[in-house]
Write a structure and sequence with these properties.
It is an enzyme of class 4 (lyase). GO terms for molecular function: metal ion binding; terpene synthase activity. This is Terpene synthase. By secondary structure, the chain is mainly alpha-helical. It has one domain: Orthogonal Bundle (Farnesyl Diphosphate Synthase), CATH 1.10.600. About 65% of the residues lie in helices and about 5% in strands. The protein contains 17 helices and 4 strands. It has a two-stranded antiparallel sheet with strand order 1-3. The protein is globular, with a radius of gyration of 20 Å. The chain starts with a strand and ends with a strand.
Length: about 350
């Protein structure tokens, strides 16, 4: 994996104060649905209860409540009936808490790589156990308050998923966690990966593949086996992930720039990498990413058309819903980012749906 030495303070100074203009991102995904689950109030109760158990800091709990992660769940999984929603809501809540425990500046794991690596290794052991795919099933692992939520999630997935489906989910969880380790290492070293290495890493840290692996659970019906292993299914997941991490990198850059003018940590984001590697302005970096989004949409739609043909008339409606479930993750991610206090975009949105962000 390539990396380049970059002075973090210099990059922060280059970005800080720049104005980024972003067109209406939902316009790039024209025709893709924006939907919300009908069970929002019930989702909110599940999410609130999970945050009460997972987060001991009253300040952080209040921050999470203001960010409205129940809205995130409802936008990401608009199709599932209520019986499937609590598990999905628990997983997403756990994901935010687990990620923030390492990613939030000032946390005890954020600046201690060895401690964070130990935490990640423990989480992987817990996941293998609760999904019942551990190599040594009798070697019980103790749960901390964050990982304990995974037991409930694992019980549900054991009930409704085959061993192979659980194995796939675990593989993507491992990819997510291992890439979080790479990202933290770059951040603490004050270095950046090269662009291609970053893209590969970002597919992991976005955790979108793990969310896609739960779509069948949410819909309550499995994909036809002759379709499951078609390359186009992986293309759907890959392009869903690509669209989400690109739009997230653009929209979250404002909150990622450190307030301190003496930072030693890198801003791990595609825009500073493009600025450094290609010698472009931040605005030009955004435009490069927008062009990649257009390609991503076309690639997704081509794969979706092939899958709709492959399932036959009997399962065509279900396959259309499956493809829409992926599309809703993309549009839901954008919509949530616009609305949530987590990203601080209030005041940046223009009447035509575009954004003007002062970094």
């Amino acid at each position: 994996m390539g990396s380049q030495i970059l002075e973090p303070q210099t990059m922060a100074d280059i970005l800080r104060g720049q104005t980024i203009h972003v067109p209406d991102l939902l316009g790039i995904f024209r025709g893709w649905p924006v939907m919300a689950n009908a069970h929002y109030d019930d989702i909110a109760s599940v999410v609130e209860g999970a945050f009460d158990r997972l987060c001991k800091s009253p300040t952080m709990r209040e921050k999470y409540r203001r960010a409205n992660y129940a809205r995130f769940v409802s936008l990401y999984y608009p199709h599932p009936n209520w019986d499937r929603i609590p598990t999905l809501a628990l997983y997403i809540t756990w994901l935010f808490c687990w990620d923030d425990a390492i990613d939030q500046q000032g946390s005890k794991l954020s600046s201690n790589l060895l401690h964070a690596q130990s935490n990640r290794a423990h989480t992987l052991r817990v996941l293998e156990q609760v999904l019942n795919i551990a190599p040594f099933a009798n070697s019980l692992v103790e749960y901390d308050e964050v990982d304990a939520e995974l037991e409930t999630i694992g019980e549900q997935l054991q009930k409704f998923y085959t061993f192979e489906q659980r194995r796939v989910y675990m593989a993507h969880m491992r990819t997510y966690i291992e890439n979080c380790d790479k990202e933290q290492s770059y951040r603490l070293e004050g270095t950046l990966p090269d662009l291609e290495s970053y893209k590969e890493m970002r597919h992991g840290t976005a955790a979108v593949w793990t969310l896609c692996a739960l779509i069948e659970y949410g819909l309550g019906e499995n994909m036809p086996e002759h379709v499951r292993y078609m390359a186009e299914v992986q293309t759907l997941w890959s392009e869903t992930s690509r669209a989400i991490w690109i739009t997230n990198d653009i929209l979250s850059l404002k909150k990622e720039i450190p307030q301190s003018s003496s930072t030693t940590e890198s801003i791990i984001n595609a825009i500073p990498i493009l600025v450094s590697e290609c010698g472009v302005s931040p605005q030009q970096a955004v435009e490069t990413l927008l062009r990649e989004l257009v390609v991503s949409v076309a690639t997704f739609e081509k794969a979706a058309a092939i899958l709709l043909e492959a399932v036959g008339q009997e399962r065509r409606e279900w396959m259309q819903t499956y493809c829409d479930a992926c599309r809703c993750m993309v549009t839901g991610s954008i919509q949530f980012t616009y609305e949530s206090t987590r990203y601080g975009l209030a005041g940046c949105l223009n009447e035509d749906g575009s954004l003007s962000m002062v970094l």
